[in-house]
Amino acid sequence: MPKKTKTVFVCQECGYESPKWMGQCICGAWGSFVEEKVDLEPENDPRSRAGLGGTSAGAGRASRPSVLKSVGSADYERIPTGIGELDRVLGGGLVKGSLVLISGEPGIGKSTLIVQAASHIAKTQGKVLYVSGEESEEQIKMRADRVCGDLGEDLFVMSETNMETIENAVDDMKPEFLIIDSIQTMYTSELDSAPGSVSQVRACGNILMKYGKTRNIPVFIVAHVTKSGDLAGPKIVEHLVDCVLNFTGERDHDIRILRAFKNRFGTTSEIGAFQMMESGLVEISDISASFLENTDEQAEGSVITAVYEGSRPVLLEIQALTSTSGVGFARRTAVGIDNQRLSMILAVLEKKMGMRFIDQDVYVNVVGGLRPDSTSVDLGVALAVYSAMRGIVPPRRMIAVGEVGLTGDLRSCQNADRIASEAARLGYEEMIMPLRNARKISKECGGIKITGVKNIYEAVNAFKE
Questions:
Q1: Residue 33 near residue 9 (C-beta atoms within 8 A)
Q2: Whether the predicted model's global pTM rises above the 0.70 cut
């Protein structure tokens, strides 16, 4: 008996389904809808959460409301990956039954990191299955030999893109860890669309979720990114998984940063730092020292600032350069800093400090490729631009943190005391911070001088003295 189907229109940007074609999607995209035929869901649909087998709480019965007070709390068991920085970002290790999505630009080191983790888990936990839809088994073996050295007997590799074939292999092997590289190359025979399409990515994501939840094994999924660095494919994949990791770094730098954008079993404020070597990715335990390795000599336009990421402070260098603009409008270029934030800081310097940038090109760069999200770097950016514009070299090794408001006042930042302790450990002599933070810290914190300032004017004076 033929399957009953219906026609829907799916947005290729966000995955939204509509019974009719729309010119503009609810996500704002124009002309993004494509026509697809989907099967009507039968009764007792196995894709339903209530229809999942195995260890699922809803296995074998229809969904019924439960009293929240009577629901038992899950004690999540974590599997160490053997990579401390990866475990830090995950929240302490891989959780059994979880889905982890990792994305990043081609060649950034995603597969290298995963192979290193897979090799350790295979040696300590049991069988690991690495499924690749992009590389041959020989290519994976060459990478594993280079970055892992001695390989155990429980690390298996499979070059396949069909989800039904992969499911049979999982049922036969019963691995402790499953890796899919990448989700855009996988397809299921139940759909006629090409691999990488919205419907295929969504269907394969649902199948992998069923694998992990019913078999109680962690699943690692690799995904591509767009030219802008955003995760490629429909947003439904991000909603399905438990953790979304992003691997970033500059190609001309060997430092790689791993950050969690979503984590159901931990915080999203932690970052992991790695250094790309010939033998693979090496963890960086002292990330601040790595970013500040060339800051022994003071230079104009260079200011040290800091952000607090998860459970540790990270010191970084802000570099600024100003030059007389040629014809046309003056340029504002920022690498690692939001352009709109830079424009706001320049406006405050013009209004409160009497500086003129209308005929000046301004360039700001965060050394090392880190992209700080915190506003605590505002003061560092402002002082770096001031130093470059006036040709002033700071008289001593100092660090500046604080959020710059539109009135020119400085707002307090979080964990300033821990940032001060880290700056003192690295040998800095003075720390400029908002007055509210300074009142809570001793004037001599671990040997570093604490200078509290109310506004950008006082901060500039403290920077010059």
A1: yes
A2: yes
